[in-house]
Amino acid sequence: MKLVVVVPAYNAARFLPDLVHRLVAAQPPGLFRIVIVDDGSRDATAETAHELASKIPNIETAIRPANGGYGAAMKTGLEVARRLDADCAASIHADGQYSPEVLADLLAALDRQSLDLLQGSRIAGGQALAGGMPLYKYAGNWALNKLERWALSLPMTDFHSGYLIYSRRALDRIPFAQLSNSFDFDLEVIAAARARGLAVGEAPIPTHYGDEISHLNPLTYGLRVLRVLWRFKRGAYGI
User: Fold this and answer.
1) How far is CA 88 from CA 115, 199, 206, 217, in A?
2) Model pTM above 0.90
């Protein structure tokens, strides 16, 4: 298996080295390339990424000249995964909120459940609040998740986690270029996978909220979620 890990990074210079070293130390099976995508950061993220690449042979950097948004960074990274002919791709955010140590378990769950797309769920493990998830986010997720389960007909618990594992079939069949450049990109990925008959599921992941800075506006994001569900119901994500 050829695994490519996409690390979208925006103003994440102080978190990036720790995340990368943890990922390398975790030794997920088949790790072929770590693709760090700097999305027009205003700090030293690009320089830090280049420094890491100079010391660790399987790191590739993709430096976007201007900030395009989380979805735009993910599109860049997933396009590199396609170019590298990856059998599987994973997204792990640069701020360390998602544990690279459980990547091997998620890959095993993808295979065991015969899935095309797997999302790591902070809720399924039952430790989201203990892991520092703010109460307002937990409550907001709960409300939106109920609506998403109904609209997408998927019995999942955390549609807003950015820890996603893509099979080769998902990489081939999901039209990433047509999806959002913003934080609703991941939900649109799930909607597109669902609309195209791909198998989608989840597995539990630990929750960690530290001093990372969130660039997500909850109100705007909530409205974007509703728009994705409305478009899904209208058939916008089908072939």
Assistant:
1) 12, 15, 22, 30
2) yes
